[in-house]
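Need tokens for this chain, all 201 residues.
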Amino acid sequence: MKYAKKLKELSHYLLSNFSSEISYNKNVLGLRSVTTVSNWVDYLVSSYLVFEVNKYSPKLKEQMLSPRKVYSVDNGIINALSFKTTENFDRLMENLVAVELYRRKSYSHSEWEIFYFKDYQQNEVDFLIKEGHTVSELIQVTYASAFDEIEKREYRSLIKASNVLGCGELKIITWDYEDTKSIGGKTITFKPLWKWLVTPG
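Here are the structure tokens for all 201 residues:
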């Protein structure tokens, strides 16, 4: 393939930025056009190397123009192919949750649409599940083993998104902390990753 080296570099770039927002522009790896970048990313998605999650917006145009978050189909691929950086358990956990959400969508929840949420104040929620016209669940992922290890922005963003979207199903997936708390007038469920993975959803 004429551009095999560039395609490999793009693969490494995406895998090194997993669980992160990415804007596809012509400056990525010095490629000539936004169309080229977009087409190559589509090729990698079709090859089941990565997949994308769009930012939630009721306006389709805003969804299309906003940065997307990219995830690997397997955490093992990240370790094998991405550039080695300081280990980031939060991002690896988030990637694993993304993979599981799409698995559940494929097998038992075909009506799901999966997004991330981010408002103008930069309050971000890792995953937003939409069923029809309703936002049915908001999910944060954090590497925490106790409540005091969870950054306040994690549940504050959940609460703000809940107020905006009218969603009452709020969850924070942790490393091994489990509880249910009322915060800011909202009930938030904290569930360990392992338990969430083995619980039908």
